[in-house]
Design brief:
The complex is a heterodimer of chains A (404) and B (290). Chain A has 404 residues and is α+β, with helices and mostly antiparallel strands. Chain A has helices spanning 13-16, 22-31, 45-55, 82-92, 149-155, 173-182, 187-206, 243-248, 256-263, 282-294, 311-322, 341-355, 370-379, 390-403, and strands spanning 18-19, 39-42, 59-63, 76-79, 96-97, 107-108, 112-116, 120-131, 136-142, 160-165, 209-220, 225-227, 231-234, 267-270, 275-279, 301-304, 329-336, 361-367, 384-387. In chain A, strands 1, 8, 9, 10, 11, 12 and 13 form a seven-stranded antiparallel beta sheet that branches. The chains are: A alpha+beta (404), B alpha/beta (290).
Amino acid sequence: MNLFCQQPKHLQPDQLHMKLHEYQAKELFGRFKLPVPEGQVAATAKEALDCAHALGFPVAIKAQVHAGGRGKAGGIKVVANIDDARTAIDTILGMTLQTAQTGKISKKVGKILIEKGVAIDRELYLSILPDRATASLMIIASSEGGMNIEEVAESSPEKIIRVRVNPLTGIQPFHLRQVAFGLGLNGDGFKSFCGLLSRLYTVVEKNDLLLAEINPLALTADGNFILLDAKVEVDPNALFRHKDLAATYDSSEDDPLELEAKKYNLNYIRLKGNVGTMVNGAGLAMATMDIIKQAGAEPANFLDVGGGANAEMIENGFRILLSDPDVKSILINIFGGILRCDVLATGVVEAARKIGLNLPVVVRMEGTNVDEGRNILTESGLDLISATDLQDAAEKISTIAGQA
Amino acid sequence: MSIFIDDNTRLLVQGITGNEGKFHTLQCESYGTNVVSGVTPGKGGQDVDGIPVFNTVRDAVRETGANASMIFVPPPFAADAIMEAADGGIQLVICITEGIPAHDMLRVKNFLATTSSRLIGPNCPGIITPGACKIGIMPGPIHTPGPIGVISRSGTLTYEVVHQLTGVGLGQTTCIGIGGDPVIGTNFIDCLSAFAGDDQTKGIVMVGEIGGNAEEEAAAFIQDNLNKPVVGFIAGLTAPPGRRMGHAGAIVSGSSGTASAKVAAMENCGIHVCKELGRLGVFCANVFNE
């Protein structure tokens, strides 16, 4: 598993980093005077062909999806003439991509980036990301960039350069020298790399990026650097000061139920199982999923309604669970602190009345106002199964899942 | 005895005039915490149920002798609030706020290193010494004084653990939620070494989650430095492996951070790892009553 930024509360890093498409990342880098290839994004075959024609061959045709590993999955092609361009565009535009980095989810390609081909002499690797352990911004670089960078990291770790920058001082000349000398650069290449790295650091700092990764960073035959690929992830917690970036986010690859949940500030991730869960607090939500699995069933989702949830949020969360056709039973586990049990119970009852309840729901509540909460559930006349504690809840879910 | 807070704690609340700030301030006060002042810029001179409000932390410290601060300031302004507290001489800063930008916390953490202040959190439920002092949003009544120290990265999961401990008759010296964010002020090891030096604490429960390698480091520390029994729990045993995040992630941390890696590391270091949350209380009773 990975990274600094892998906050367990959201389970999956994808969920908590706002990813930009490659073409958006390159636009951002271009604004900071970083060298990116000439190119244009296209959503139709005609646009793409016109673009290729205007740029002149060879051109690179690149699928724009939120995932790495596109090259290996066939989402990137370099073509030398218009006929090959037409074939490649028809293949890539609209294809579904499943790469090493998308996991089991396939992503449909709705946009492609057409870029002018570049004569490459060397491929380097360069990234900057926050390092949780040292509270610094870490620069990672390697002279062995390209598709096999992870194998390089594994087999020859000495070829990976790491330099940590204290965010209070920002990047200093000695940081730049450490990286540039480490990459074996000299002369003009050394100088232009230092300028490039310095600007990349500025992009990361000014835009609250959780990841800026350039792989490969190409050194061209004529001695210039160019950012051939660009991966950028923005801190969603910082979007209040980056309205421009927030507006660029392409949500077309997201699960519709996850998007719906986002509207109500619910932390929801759809999974493969059929036991829906609603829990307050991320740690408890993960532990509840563990309990479901240990009981021999599979969770259908992760749903953290948060500590300060109100009746309306509970109602919306419950409605999202019920609208997932895979969900065959539901376990609600709430430890009332800020969120009082009576508020929870009211929300559940309201939602169940509005939508109608046709599957078994096990409710386990503890904490603030638990007696009032239990009364509301009992007096509702709804068919809700009450669990006395977690162990009891696990056994009840196990029984229900076994019958299904 | 307890760690970090006790009867001498004089609490200041930053963001005291907001809804949540006010609600939890009064909850803490009714639990017995000595809340001496609050800070909301521009509202100096007002009061919240008799608690005087100041414009700056320095004013509040000078006038009321506050030595701890609880922060309820919204995320865009929370980093500033933490630094103001440390700059004002507050020795213990507890930040409840969730959703502070990561880059802000990088700067805060480096700034705090130049001061003598301790930060707990952010994105945490706070800290409580049952029967004496509560600084945070946890429900007071589930806690009871006793010999067990609790350290957790979670909020409500901590309540569940404490509730079960109290249920089997194991009270607590101090319970600390260290927070779920990637960059936090006080980590497991800081708390473990404090509990190691606290005579009243006879055993420790450590609640972790997937991600990062704080639990692995804590396990190594326990093996080398602690001769008190420790029960561990990790949430996320069955969480699906995270989708990949570009190459940088794999280069940085390889395979660490998974629940099974954490459980293995903890068991190797002599920690009693409980795998079923529903039986955690009973599990602890068996370990600690030996």
